[in-house]
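Worked Example 4.2. Consider the chain below.
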Amino acid sequence: MTSPTHIITVLTHDRPGIIHQLVTALGDAGVPHLEISQTVVHQAFTIALVLAIPSGQTPTAVRDRLLDALQHKASATVLALDETSAGTETLHKPQARYILTAIGEGFAGVVRSVSGLVREHGGSFSDFSSQVIDGRLQLLAEVKFAEEASVGELQAALARASDRPELAVRLQHQTLFSATNEIAFRRNAT
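Applying the procedure from the previous section yields the following structure tokens:
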């Protein structure tokens, strides 16, 4: 198994074909990409690429190759991964996954409050998206817990924090969230 060595993040104006340009440049350089996380925020394309940069190649040269492949204004940052970093032992343990949603009005301070409660109860965000559309907050996040002991306490704290009827905040186990939010067409055999 190839071990990750670096994360390179890229930020540029959104347009079609960026991911293809980046993975093609990596493939041409013989640099495996192990994980990709990408999103567009306010017409700005952002991507994080977990790479296994082979010995003999420098992270700076790989970053420059990616920027050259884009042929547009872009910025990129390189972060070396160190398996001995403090705190990594808890990140690699199996963790329960929960989905946090906050939908409604009264968005001022909600993200700050919700993120603070998650931190206080031992949770960690592995994916997070928040936007205001037509004056309404739409927050969707994946939260992981090393131990589920504080999940119930967090659910109660979130309920107290969102005691306004115009704002619904929920924390559900991923399995329950998927089962209650999955759209599927079912036909009865006749």
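Confidence is low (pLDDT under 50) at residues 85-91. The first strand starts at residue 6 and ends at 13. Compare this with Example 4.1 before moving on.
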